[in-house]
Amino acid sequence: MPMQKFYILIFLLFITSSGIAQDNALDTTISISFHNTTLREAFDQLEDKGGISIAYNNNLESLNYKITKEYSNKSIDHILNDILVGKDLWYKLIGGKITIYATKNRKNKVTLSGYVYDEETGEILIGCSIYDPATYIGTSTNNFGFYSLTLPQEKGEKTILFSYIGFETQLVKVDPADGTLNIRLPPAENNLD
């Protein structure tokens, strides 16, 4: 019986430390070197060394910018701040994942971003369509279930459509200036008779 309590205690400590690690992903301290490395490759190395997840749009031109830098016992937050200065990119911690997004040409525009999940299983939905019917601007979730939708900056709420095959389409009212919107789509009822 005492051994069983010991294993339960170890298990609870492991779960607690895993949750804390996700919450403090930017505070993780690592040593890393980049030598003529593209930002895309640098993000991959940061994921490997820091045990974190970084999401970004592969079409961002700035990802091909090359850097040569060395860091010793620096936080991931410090490293990202340093390598992204002047690159028209920035980052946010959303749902335990670091998300890289473009910042140039943002005058009079606002970006709404987040993740789309299956309401029942909590799994990410890859390829979910996100669309603003008022402006005809849309996007879809990437391999991480992440989307980023840049819209003209207007006051007030917008209605954003989330659609995925096999799931109920949702129309969600949101103020894009809030910046982040994570969605859980419920599976569609099977009406095949």
Gross morphology is globular
At the third CATH level, what is the topology name of the largest domain?
Phage tail protein beta-alpha-beta fold
Alpha-carbon distance between the two ends = 54 Å
Helix content: 10-25%
On the 0 to 100 scale, the average pLDDT is 81
Q: Structural class of the helices, strands and pairings?
A: alpha+beta
Strand content: 35-45%
Number of distinct helices: 3
Total separate domains = 2
Instruction: Give the low-pLDDT segments.
Output: 11-23
Strand order of the largest sheet: 8-7-10-11
- The number of strands is 12
Largest sheet, described in full? Answer: 4 strands, antiparallel
CATH class of the largest domain reads: Alpha Beta
| Topology order in helix (H) and strand (E) letters | HEHEEHEEEEEEEEE
